[in-house]
Amino acid sequence: MTTLSFHDVSLRYPARKGASEGQTPLVLDQINLSIETGEFVVVIGRSGSGKTSLLNLAAGFLPPSGGRIAVDGTTVSGPGADRAVVFQDDALYPWLDARDNIAFPLKLRGVPEAVRHTRAQELLDVVGLTDAGRRRISELSGGMRQRVGIARALASDPLFLLLDEPLGALDAMTRTRMQGFLLDVWSKSRAGALLITHSIDEALLLASRVVVLSANPGRLAADIQTGFAAELLGGASVAQVKASPLYKRMHDGLTGLIHSISEDTEAAA
Ligand SMILES: Nc1ncnc2c1ncn2[C@@H]1O[C@H](COP(=O)(O)OP(=O)(O)OP(=O)(O)O)[C@@H](O)[C@H]1O
């Protein structure tokens, strides 16, 4: 088991050139959070609470202003193949076909062409795009593109998948289908997942833990174990899970919590 951990992490973005003197606002404050391989942690919080910033810190795209982020005790000092990122806008290379997009991280690592094509085809199979490898990105639907993005992230066998609203741009039906797909792919990968979403349903259906961020500055307001994803992986349907009294209670509880945090923040502003 490997752990991705935040130790007393804080973040301020640097002041823009020409901005007046003084510190920029604190975006994240005293974040202590650990994610283990095999766990699916979903971060939820109102807009501007620092969710994407948190994910960018984990990815090594940003250095923390205070504290430290580590993978099994080794400080994260930049991006690494152990942590793969999937964004909302799939960020694929339009001049490459689906197979070569998926194989791209392997090409960067110098993996021979034949080996990377074999691995890319395996991943196309995993994400249900067996026959789409030679199709250009512009010929794929939104859901198919996100699956290519997820397959590309899996290509380097990461320890952690960092998912920034990967399903946010999809229509409701495709999104529901993709949630099931993501859960399935993740459970087979045994990676740790850190996913950001605005959707309480998505959080409850995918997470083994839901983390709630307050805003201004972003602090951990709650860290809640959930078991609905395990029920789905065990064969329950989304409708069955959502109909349970516990699901409704947790949904109401999270809605109330996020609402009350927003009111507190507005009152303090
Ligand atoms: N590159 C940046 N430079 C300066 N400030 C930034 C930068 N990126 C984000 N911020 C600020 O940091 C705060 C947190 O932003 P962030 O995007 O992390 O929040 P979020 O919870 O992901 O928001 P949303 O749900 O709307 O995507 C916001 O006040 C935002 O304006």
From TrEMBL:
The protein, known as: ABC transporter ATP-binding protein
ABC transporter domain segment(s): 4-240
The entry's keywords: ATP-binding, Cell inner membrane, Cell membrane, Membrane, Nucleotide-binding, Translocase, Transport
PANTHER family per UniProt: TAURINE IMPORT ATP-BINDING PROTEIN TAUB, TAURINE IMPORT ATP-BINDING PROTEIN-RELATED
Family: Belongs to the ABC transporter superfamily.
Keyword ATP-binding applies: yes
InterPro entries (alphabetical): AAA+_ATPase (IPR003593), ABC_transporter-like_ATP-bd (IPR003439), ABC_transporter-like_CS (IPR017871), ABC_transporter_ATP-bind (IPR050166), P-loop_NTPase (IPR027417)
Keyword Transport: yes
GO MF annotations in UniProt: ATP binding; ATP hydrolysis activity
Pfam families registered for this protein in UniProt: ABC_tran (PF00005)
Superkingdom of the organism of origin: Bacteria
